[in-house]
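Milestone M4 deliverable, item 7.
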Amino acid sequence: MDRRYPVGILKIKLIPYFSAIKQTLMLGLLRENTKIAFDAIRSQLLRTILTVLIIGLGIFALVGILAGVAVLEGSITGNFASMGANTFSISRYDFSDQIRGDDVKVNPIISYPQAREFQEKYNFPSASTSLSFTAASNAEVKHGDKKTDPEITIVGADEFFLPNSGLETTKGRNFNNFDVSNNSNVCIVGSDFEKGLFKDTNPIDKTISVRGTRFKVIGVLKEKGSTFGSRQDLRLIIPIQVARSIFTAPNIDYEVKVMIGSGDMLSSAVDEAVLTMRRVRKLNPVADDNFGIERSDELLKQLLSETEALNYAAWIIGIITIFGSSIALMNIMLVSVTERTREIGVRKSLGATRLIIALQFFTETLIISLIGGAVGIILGLLVGGLGVSLIFDTAFPMPWAAIIAALITVIIVTLVSGLLPAIKAAALDPVEALRYE
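Output delivered:
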C-alpha cells in the first residue's frame, strides 16, 4: 500500500462519499415507502376516506373555532386600539352588574344641561370632554336626485367627539370650535356614503339634505366596518346644537366621553369624574351612583375574557379529536397489517429490515393524517376564519396559532396511532408471515 496515504487518512477522505451514499439510500427508501403507502391507500379507499373525514372533522372544528376567535379578537382589539386605553364614557347605562350576570341597570337620562355642567366642572389635567347624542337611527339623507335608504344614524356631537371615540377622517377635516359655537350647517359622513350617495365623486364640499336642512360635507370618516352587527359607516355627524334644533324629541339622552392625556392617570380621572357627576346629579353622600362609567381598558379585557371560553372549547374538541382519530386510524392500520401479512413476509425475505417495515407503515399513517389535517385546516380557515370575517365585515388575520395547533394535533395522532401498527408489522416472523393465508 502507498505509504503516502495511511488508512486513517483514506477513511477521512471517504467519509463524505459514504455520507452522500447514505443520504441517497435514505431518500430512495422514503420515495419507495411513500409510493407503497399511496398504493395501499388506493387499495383501501373507502376506509381511508372515512378515516380522513374523522380526522378532518375534528381538525375543522379546532381550526374553525380558533380562527373565528382570532377574527373576533382582531376586530375587538382593532376597534379599541384606535381609542387607546385612556378613554372612558359616562351614560345612563350601568354595565357593572352585567359582569356578575345581572341585567344592565338603566338609570335616568343624562340631560343636556347635566352634560354641559359636567363638561364645565370637570377640570382634570389633560382631559378633553365631548358631548354627543344619537339624534335619529333611521334617517333618510338626500343629495340632488339621489337618496339613501332610511337607515342612516344621525349623531349630534362637538369637536372633541371624533378623537375621543377613536374616529378619524380620510378626507376633509373634523369640526372646529367655530363650526360648533356658530351652529354651522356642516357635517361629517361615514365611509359608506362614498359607495352609495357619492359614488365615483368626492363628497367634500357637496351638499346633502336631512329633514329639509342642507349641510355641507367637510369630512369623510375612515372605514370602521361592523361591530356586532352594527354598521359603523352609515353615520352622519352634525354639530350638536344644530342637531338639537332639528331633532327635538323629549327626554334625549346624552353621552359624555372623556380622553385623558396619559393612561397612567385613567383611574384618578375616573374617580374625579364620578365625584363631578354625583355633584351634577345632586346625589346625597349615601346614595348609589345613578349613572354608568365604561372604561375602554376594562371593556376590552371583559370582551377578550369572553373569547377565552371559545378557546377552551376549541382545545377540548382538539383533545377529543386526538382520541377519536387516533383510535380510528390505529384500527385501520392494524387491519392493514393483518391483511398485508404475506406482503410483509415477502419483503422481509428479500432483505427488508424491521426498521424499513416499520417506516413503511408509519409513512402510510403519516400520509393519512396529513391529508385529514389539510382538509380540516382548509375548511376551518374558510368557514371559521374567512366566513366570520365576512359576517362581521372585518379583516381576516391569518390564525397561525390555529394552524400550529392543527399541525401538533396531526403529529400526535400520527405518533399515537402509527407506532403500534408499525411495531407489530416489524415484529412479524418472515417464515410465519409467508405461510399466512
